[in-house]
Amino acid sequence: MSVQDTDIPAARPVDWRDPRILARIRRRHARDGWLKAAGLVALLIAFALLAILVGSLVYRGHSAFTQTMVTLQVHVDPKKVKPERLRRGKYDDMVEAALLSHFPEVRSRADRRKLTKILSKGARLALRDRVTADPALIGQTVTISVPVSDPFDQLNKGLIGRSTPEERRIVDDRAIAWFDRLAEKGLISRPFNTALFLEADSRFPELAGLAGAIRGSAYALLVCFLISFPVGIAAAIYLEEFAPRNRFVDIVEVNINNLAAVPSVVFGLLALAVFLGWFGLPRSAPLVGGMTLALMTLPTIIIATRAAVKAVPPSIREAALGIGASETQVVFSHVLPLAMPGILTGTIIGLAQALGETAPLLLIGMNAFITEPPGGVLDPATALPTQIYIWADSPERGFVSRTAAAICVLLLFLVTMNALAVILRRRFERRW
Amino acid sequence: MTMLQPDEAETETEAPTAELKMTARDVDVFYGTNHAIKSISVDIPDKTVTAFIGPSGCGKTTFLRCLNRMNDTIRNCRVTGEIRLDGEDIYGRDIDPVQLRARVGMVFQKPNPFPKSIYDNVAYGPRIHGLAGTRAELDEIVERALTRAALWQEVRDRLDAPGTGLSGGQQQRLCIARAIATAPEVLLMDEPCSALDLIATAQIEELIDELRESYSVVIVTHSMQQAARVSQKTAFFHLGVLVEYGETSRMFTNPSDQRTQDYITGRFG
Ligand SMILES: Nc1ncnc2c1ncn2[C@@H]1O[C@H](COP(=O)(O)OP(=O)(O)O)[C@@H](O)[C@H]1O
Ligand SMILES: [Mg+2]
Predict the structure, then answer these.
(1) Ligand 1 within 6 A of B221 CB?
(2) Are A186 and A216 contained in the same domain?
(3) Judging by beta carbons within 10 Å of its beta carbon (0-12, 13-18, 19+), is residue A237 exposed, middle or buried?
(4) What is the value of pTM for the model shown?
(5) The domain containing residue B108 runs over which residues?
(6) B220 CA closest ligand 1 atom index
(7) Three-class SS of residue A189?
(8) What is the ipTM of this complex?
(9) Which residue in A317, A323, A330, A333 has the most chain B C-beta atoms within 10 A of its own C-beta, making it the best mutation to test that interface?
(10) Which residues of B touch A318 (CB under 8 A)?
(11) What is the tens place of the pLDDT at every residue in B199-222?
């Protein structure tokens, strides 16, 4: 069709080389440049902050991943341990004797007591476990590495400066000299701190570990998952697929979204009143912790599930209904499997949040001092974040590095979980 | 196209005497307050291809979906009137829509295979309805459905490959195979070729012609040529009303209504 055929006037020709138009294009490009630069700067700031956080944690925490040990030749004296009462032996006497044998010139009682302060209170436990496991050792001499007490651990790691004036140091010059004698003899070693992962909390930093907290967190997360995953999915499926459209359902929807925004401490108070107060569940139990965390994780899972279910194309539902699938079959053999990657991603992110949650656990007493890892969900326990809270509050120097180490461990778990969520999402990208 | 069977030739000339598979009487459909279908009555004969034509938005899909009660799944949709399958009211109390949809199969406008293997796509219907006792029986049903849908030769070596990986035309034939695997009595097809190219369209039309031997086929189509090619009966819809219904050959040569005349000569649509 030619222009002459119509009543529409021909468009005025545009001069694309007009300086005004060129200036305008330059301005637009400049704006693009600014936007990109601003984004880059924001990203750099975020990364710098993250690097500072992680860097300082690793700097402060890395020393806690090793532990100073002293290797001793201990004579297991049959007079001090009876085969029928293995756990009741006088193991501290034996370990101390082994240490003292390196210093024959130290005679006075006061000095000897001071000398044995090099040893951790846990030293006897190492020997006890050894002998209990193998009673045939009674009467023999065993070579055993036992932890040194926190001040000497700090000294060995260089965290207590030798140049500091003596009166401002917790170890005096004489103790340092003794310690150095042991070091000269090659008896001091600094292996990986397995106690950090194998032992529960302790009053003595050199003996304190995260095993109890890790297990407590694992139990709580398990309970949280077992409650929030099925309930969350069921609620979301009902709301998406079956719920009638009425005022009541609208109110439920709005409130689920509100629930996701409620501060966690409020859930803690609720749990304290309901789970402990009315139901009389035990304090500090991972069961209660998990139930409380489930309250917070539920909205996350419901929202993620609804989004994932919504994203399943209606044509798939129609296809299934069209060949005579019942509503249940449509949900279970088509909608849920297709939505599962999204649901799992949401669940893992929800659980990662729950793992780091502290306030509600403090309120239900999961910040108690507990020296045994929990054997079940009803045993008192701590969780990783509450353990960090306890250690951060402890005056002993050894806990400073342990707090940082515990944060590193917690972050490691969080990063692993989030990475898992990303991998899942990648793995099961939309298939339609 | 296959050779015309003697009884098919008869259908073309003596359609009114053909046995009726489905009958609709005074069907009205409302979407909320939108009156989409207005008092439509249609007879759908057995072993015949019936085409629904009409401009877009005139209610072809809506009416088609009444025939297997797919409209039940739309929240604000209300259907009144009477639709019978073999004389039985499909909206009656003792008809289960889930079972009805196995008897009245449906192929959708956009190919919508499940994101599962080709085999599982076809086997899904027989599985949920318990049509196969053994794995061998199921294999046989799948093979037969794929063969009838003219897809077996192309996919026999990759039954485990995902159905979504096929080409558009193959996907639509897979959907047809899936629909006929439950051995339906009526097959509803909603613009099955609208997303396909010419060659795929020709394949599907050929297929429809073969399916007519065993089923009553109802096809919604945008294309008059397609209706003329594949159908024996044609119903022309306009603005929710059934304007004209009759032999395809007569409709296209000698329509009785002016609106039909305008539509098939391309004056609107
Ligand atoms: N799910 C629905 N909800 C509300 N209105 C609908 C829905 N589907 C179709 N309609 C309306 O019903 C009328 C007929 O639509 P449809 O049957 O899809 O027409 P066709 O298939 O002939 O193009 C249209 O006015 C359309 O807007
Ligand atoms: Mg349509």
Answers:
(1) no
(2) no
(3) buried
(4) 0.82
(5) 20-264
(6) 21
(7) strand
(8) 0.86
(9) A323
(10) 70, 73, 108, 112
(11) 888 988 998 998 898 889 999 998
